[in-house]
């Protein structure tokens, strides 16, 4: 298992363009939004906060969804398309180990990206650090696990990299919409807000922890349940070719 993680980490680092983009782009997005003066002005729509203060949780959503659904499934599907998985099928390695290796490496990259975003938000724009750090950590871990587990299901089934990209894009767009990345959450109908609260990676739990209260345990429980169910489905339906 450790060897698989080591090899996958090396491959991740060697893919400099995609890996750097995945880890740095969320912070660059925050810098771009923060350069707009109106978004650095307190607004009653955000409870007297600035737009960038309340939008950091949506950027974390983008980070987890992008790496979990755009990178991870494509990498595994590329292995399948190029025959790498077929060769691995002749070894005693269980497919769950390959999926776990991908999960560990990509989730580690997501955590680093989230930390970079927090540092940029605090140093450049004076955004408060998370008021409930433990709650934010739980929300990121459980919400990220649910998101990445969905990516693993796509990775387990997609026959080619193109198919993985197409399937993942549909889920990616839905989770981004429910996560308030495309539109500020105050502009969304209450039904959409509720769905977004229980959809991975759980934007409501992230925002609650960032702004000062413990995340709703029900949101976290749903994220954990999604990760367990989707992870089990991915392991059982995995195809070598």
Automatic annotation (TrEMBL):
Keywords: Antibiotic resistance, Cell membrane, Membrane, Transmembrane, Transmembrane helix, Transport. The chain crosses the membrane at residues 20-39, 59-79, 99-122, 134-157, 164-183, 220-238. Its main location: membrane. The keyword Cell membrane applies. It comes from the Bacteria. Pfam families: ABC2_membrane. The keyword Cell inner membrane does not apply. It is a multi-pass membrane protein. It is found in: Cell membrane; Membrane. InterPro entries: ABC-2_transporter, ABC2_TM, ABC2_TM_bact-type, ABC_2_transport. Residues 17-241 form the ABC transmembrane type-2 domain. Belongs to the ABC-2 integral membrane protein family. This is Transport permease protein.
């Amino acid at each position: 298992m450790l060897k698989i993680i080591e090899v996958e980490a090396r491959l991740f680092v060697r893919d400099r363009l995609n890996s750097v983009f995945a880890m740095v782009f969320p912070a660059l997005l925050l810098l771009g939004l923060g350069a707009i003066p109106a978004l650095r002005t307190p607004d009653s729509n955000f409870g007297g906060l600035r737009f960038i203060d309340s939008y950091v949780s949506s950027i974390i959503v983008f980070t987890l969804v992008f790496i979990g659904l755009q990178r991870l499934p494509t990498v595994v599907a590329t292995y399948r398309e190029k025959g790498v998985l077929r060769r691995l099928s002749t070894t005693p390695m269980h497919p769950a180990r390959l999926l776990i290796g991908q999960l560990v490496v990509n989730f580690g990259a997501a955590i680093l990206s989230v930390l970079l975003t927090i540092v940029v938000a605090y140093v450049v724009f004076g955004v408060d650090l998370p008021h409930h750090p433990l709650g934010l950590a739980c929300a990121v871990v459980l919400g990220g696990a649910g998101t990445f587990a969905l990516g693993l299901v796509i990775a387990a089934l997609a026959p080619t990299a193109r198919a993985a990209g197409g399937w993942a894009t549909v889920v990616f767009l839905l989770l981004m919409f429910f996560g308030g990345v495309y539109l500020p959450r105050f502009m969304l109908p209450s039904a959409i807000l509720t769905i977004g609260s229980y959809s991975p990676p759980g934007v409501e739990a992230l925002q609650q922890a960032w702004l000062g209260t413990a995340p709703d345990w029900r949101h976290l429980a749903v994220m954990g349940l999604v990760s367990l169910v989707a992870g089990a489905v991915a392991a059982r339906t995995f195809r070598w070719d």
